[in-house]
Amino acid sequence: MFWHGSPDGLGEKLLSGPLQDFERWCEDVLSEFPEDIDPDILPLLRAVQTNGRPALQAANCVEAALVDRLIETYFGMYCDGKQPEILISAERSMLSVWRYKNIFDKARVTPEFAQAVMLWDYIFIGRPIGRDPQIFPYQSADGFFHVSYWTFDEVVFLRNAIVTIALPNDVDASALQCSMQALDAAIAQRSGLIITIG
Question: How many domains, the chain?
Fold first, then answer.
């Protein structure tokens, strides 16, 4: 669930990956199992290889959903099956995602840590890249699997929030421990974190 990512976010992890090999893999999957991935990600992938980060920016809901399909296919299928060495685990537990819900008591969060709640909520809803999530939120293809991330600075901020804010009485101790292990591992590596759910 928690993987080391680029200090600057999910986009940099994608852009620094083996995109030509990913393109060949997509072509192979589409020829053998055409229902498994969205064929429209191929032109987007080629644009990303040519233009970099600007190709990941979305001007409408259709483009936003396509970027999300590309991210899910890369991190959820390609990295998980074909190239598992791309994602290095920051924390190896397999807790159900609902156990992470009560880390913050929103009533006790001070204004200086309000952003921590928003960042934490990305675990449950996914986080888009290249666009404002308030305008074009992340769109899971199947309503279940999704990808989110925190930059290195956000990891440091979240860890500080968890140790500073009074936590709820019913916080799940295992989820808290796993979260702290992932945050500490990222800080030790000076990495961001990628969170995959599904």
Answer: 1
What single letter denotes the amino acid at residue 101? K
- Quick: pLDDT tens for 26-53: 999 999 999 999 999 999 999 999 999 9
75 contact partners, CB below 8 Å, separation of at least 6: 10, 14, 87, 147, 194, 196
Q: Take residue 48 and report the two structure tokens written for it.
A: 């990303």
SS3 60: coil
Strand ranges in the chain using DSSP code E only, listed in sequence order: 2-5, 89-91, 146-150, 192-197
Range of the domain at 143: 2-197
Residues 134-186: tens digit of each pLDDT: 999 999 999 999 999 999 999 999 999 999 988 888 899 999 999 999 999 99
Residues 121-126: contacts with CB within 8 Å, 24+ apart?
122/148, 122/149, 122/150, 122/195, 123/97, 123/148, 123/195, 123/197, 124/97, 124/100, 124/197, 126/68, 126/197
φ, ψ of residue 190 in degrees (nearest 5)? 55, 45
- How far is CA 24 from each of CA 30, 32, 53, 71, 89, rounded to the nearest angstrom? 10, 12, 20, 16, 25
**pLDDT recorded at residue 56:** 96
